[in-house]
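Intended use. Records like the one below are meant for learning the mapping from a protein sequence to its folded structure. Do not use them to infer anything beyond what is encoded.
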Amino acid sequence: MYILPKSFYARDPKVVAIDLLGKVIVRKLDGERLSGIIVETEAYYGFNDPASRAYGGIKPFCRVMLEEPGTLFIYMVHGNWLLNIVTLPKGIPSAVLIRAVEPKEGIKIMLRNRRVKRIYDLTNGPGKFTKAFGITKEYNGLNVADPSSPINIIDEGYRPSSIESSHRIGVSRDLPQKLRFYIKDNPYVSKAKPKA
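Structure written out for the chain above:
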């Protein structure tokens, strides 16, 4: 069991998105530990990816995409905070969005942060996950490879037996390749469907 190093993230975002499945995201909150198995991700490239925040050039709010691999890029869409992790070497914009996790530790705190009737609805979407984990823009720019960071990603040795892919969710223009990845048959994968 170890914290994933910067070198893990300094690769093609598609590769990182696939390899993050089964890893455990850990959030330290008020002396408590919240964790969940990453079950769904999406890869985003830079200037030539029409669904990327870096498409057409870097805007001030997304300059963090040029930082060291492993840096958190957190921004709001439709009232929800989305957690992305910067990939590729510094200066090349790309990131992986964490779309869903399977809760592991600190579930009572997650339920306090986000009241739901069904446990499967607790973290089965990018905004649901960040709300349950208490993650907001204040963590933007931190690096998950830093052991002192309140958010880390750990390899516990689990490898999913079957991974599926699709086009990304909620994007009006997408690249030809499928860049959304998820663990097959995991009940915490989001219910949203990609555009045909």
